[in-house]
Amino acid sequence: ILGQELAGRAALTVAIKTGRVPVVELNDVYRAPPSLVAPYNRLSYGGKLFSKKAEGAYPLNEIGLIHSGIPQLLLIDVDGMQERKEKTITLYNLNEIKFRCSLLKKFPSHWTKDIMIICLYKEQKRKIQSALNKNFTVLTVDSAQGKEKSIVILMTTRTVLPKMGSFFDSHERCNFSVSRQQKALIILGKASLLTTNKPWNTVVNGDDVTRIKADQIK
């Protein structure tokens, strides 16, 4: 009977109908070394991901943002205030944008093509794009899906906890935004908000994440 069905229908459709669907977990990761996989591994995969890529690149050490010999994961506490674009629900944070300009000056100009800036909010993305040259990759979380870069700078923007059910507290969106990096991840935001609220606290409260204040960067 199964053979007759397969003759006229897609094999997967029949397998689903009969309950004979083999499940294979794909746990090997090639995008980044273990230390860079760790944030989203503990957030969404219960530590099951296994990186096949060796450690070895330390770009944040090279420019003096963190000490040598530790994971290239950095949370920068930025003072500021979220603002809402008139007649919309999208947010921006001018202090975060201003600091981002200072931060980018730390990077050699030839690294530009290796940097991806991810914004949680479209208005933040729009304002950043208008201030940067076109060589920088600036994306929203949605448009960043499926893409990756050596260095990711994540702009979280919010300074006030939203009501439950917003995309700020979306587990999936958080996972997408912290899994695009190959060599380094920098998260900009209000540390007191990110460290005390899910899902972000799972990412930033790890012992592998260095935390500094924006005014420590000269």
Distance between the termini: 73 Å
Radius of gyration: 20 Å
Runs in which pLDDT lies below 50 for 5 or more consecutive residues are: none
SSE-based structural type: alpha/beta
GO molecular function, one term: hydrolase activity
InterPro entries: Coronavir_polyprotein_1ab, DNA2/NAM7-like_C, P-loop_NTPase, SF1_C_Upf1
Domain DNA2/NAM7 helicase-like C-terminal: 16-191
Keywords: ATP-binding, Helicase, Hydrolase, Nucleotide-binding
Account of the 3D structure:
- There is one protein chain.
- With 218 residues, this protein is α/β, with parallel strands linked by helices.
- It has a single domain, classed as Rossmann fold (3-Layer(aba) Sandwich).
- Helices cover 33% and strands 19% of the residues.
- It is built from 10 helices and 10 strands.
- Strands 7-6-8-9-3-10 form a 6-stranded parallel beta sheet.
- Strand 8, helix 8 (171-177) and strand 9 (181-189) form a beta-alpha-beta unit.
- The longest helix has 11 residues, at 34-44.
- The chain is globular.
- It starts with a helix and ends in a 5-residue tail after the last strand.
- The model has no long low-confidence stretch (mean pLDDT 89).
